[in-house]
Amino acid sequence: MSDGLPETSRKIQSQQPESPAKMPKHNKARKKPRKALDGISTKPLLKARKAEPRQPVAEAYSPYSTKKTRGRPRTIPVNWATGRAYNYGIQLRQVWPMLEAPLLVAKTLEEVTTAFENQGQPYAKNFVPESASDLLDLIHDRKFPKRSDGRIRFLADSLGGRPSLSARSSRDICEKERAHQRRKSQHHIIRHEFWVECTCGYKGPALDNACRKCGAEIRSSIFDLRGPGPF
Q1: FRET partner for 171 with CA separation of 20 to 30 A, picked from 28, 112, 190, 194?
Q2: Quick one: average pLDDT of 184-201?
């Protein structure tokens, strides 16, 4: 006791309610699924495909079409080069026995022209003087064959596409065409028949364009197939 006042005890309580102690949460790291190395999302591709306009189907190639084709434009048709090479080959074979010796020793354009004018008649004007320069280069080419047949073919194929094509390109075109012809069958159709149905009752393949049973011939006109008219 102090100063005559009774001693009282105070309890100071906190205004905030007591809360139980909370344990800290251990946030577990979420495992993200790994993408495979070769996995590619298709969503961007689908969006890109939808955005692209549809292209029309490519038309079949036509030799009469005016549209430009892929690659370098052709200066002359292939059959022109092969056709000219074929004609040159025929002409050279007829004069080659007399033309070969003076032509192979030629060293100038004048000598090439003289060889054709003297030993290449009557076809000299088809070769000289227009192709004299090409002929001089060809007979001195490293790939010039050693046999007569090979030399004739080499010259003819090289000149077939000149001057629109190089000699090498002309030879390549002619060789491809020969390879294409070799792949074709050597046989050819000498007879074909139809499957017929005759009024005599026969049904089956025809023989010499006629019925095998009664010999009725196959009519060529569609109006004849209808039978005789009213008049």
Answers
A1: 112
A2: 84
